[in-house]
Each structure stands twice: as structure tokens, then as C-alpha cells.
Amino acid sequence: MSDKVVLDGEDMRRTLVRISHEIVEKTGGSSLAVVGIHRRGAVLAQRLRDLVAELVGEPIPLGDIDISFYRDDVATRSQQPTVHASHIEFPIEGTTVVLVDDVLYTGRTARAAMDALLELGRPAAIRLAILVDRGHRELPIRADYVGKNVPTARGERVLVNLVETDGEDGVVVVGD
């Protein structure tokens, strides 16, 4: 089994700063909200929201969303999903929602998150920000903001470590 570090802590910081600049450049920073997908996407969303708010000089709404029951494989999983509360305490109508997750793989998590968001209202637009895009899409979904493209084999795993949950920042590809 081989492990390959693709982003260390400083790389991750620079990547999030770049993504925040891209978000402001493409959206202007107005009528904007940031929503993270539980678990690690929610942590990354908070970091991105803080960076974007600093750039635009005004508060940006932050939310997090649990997609456990919106997944298309919920009935076929061997174990019950761990359910987290969703927190979106602002209206999403007319807002550009930047949906944040750590890894984009098949596209099914992003689709489930969009379904969950649309149950709460009709945003002006949904944009997808991803730390790592590893390929292997099964649905026609692409990220608007990508930290790093990391081609992987299907048997490999991409592990995102965050200070808030794991004690350190970094992204590692674990081989089979």
C-alpha cells in the first residue's frame, strides 16, 4: 500500500485563498452564501466563507447541510448513515449558494446536496467548490471551483485531513 501526499497544510491554505479569490471574481461577492456538505465540506466552507468575507468586507452567510437521506444509495448501504443536523438559517431565494465539499468523485454527493438545497428554496444559482477533484464521474456534474485535480485509480482513496477534525491539514492518496 502506498501513500502519496498531494497537499500539505500550506498547500491547502494557498488553495483555499485562491478559490476564495475566484469566488469573489466570478460572483462579485454580493447575494452570496456558502454552504458546506457534512463533515469535511462544512469545515472547508467555514474557512472559505471567512476568506471571502474578508475580501468583500462584509459578512457572508454560512450554512451546512446533511445529505444522508438524499443519497441514491441510502437503501442499499450496509450500515445506517450518521445523520448530522443541517443549519441554513438564512433565505436562499435569490442567493448564489457556493456548495463546498472536500472531494468530488462520482458526483452523487453533489447531486444529493443540490436536492437537499432545493427543498429549502430556489437559489439564483448553485456553484460547486471542491478541494480535490479525483475524476471517475458517474453523473454529469463538474465543479466551478477546484483546488486540485488529482487523477486516481478507482481502488485508491483520497483522504482529506483537517486541523479541526484530524489535528492537521493535508490530502493523501492511499493506494490499493
Q: Gap between N and C termini, in Å?
A: 6 Å
> How are helices and strands ordered from N to C?
EHEHEEHEEEHE
Cα shape: globular
Q: Name the helicity range.
A: 25-40%
Number of beta-strand segments: 8
Strand percentage lies at: 25-35%
Count of DSSP H/I helices: 4
Q: What is Rg?
A: 16 Å
Largest sheet: 5 strands, parallel
Walk me through this protein's architecture.
By secondary structure, this protein is α/β, with parallel strands linked by helices. It is 29% helix and 28% strand. It is built from 4 helices and 8 strands; from the N terminus they run E-H-E-H-E-E-H-E-E-E-H-E. The chain has helices at 9-27, 40-56, 108-118, 163-166, and strands spanning 3-8, 32-37, 62-65, 96-104, 125-133, 145-149, 157-161, 170-174. Strands 3-2-4-5-6 form a 5-stranded parallel β-sheet, with helices on both faces. A 3-stranded antiparallel β-sheet has the order 1-8-7. Helix 2 (40-56) links the parallel strand 2 and strand 3 (62-65). Helix 1 crosses helix 2 (40-56). 38% of the residues are buried. The model has no long low-confidence stretch (mean pLDDT 92).
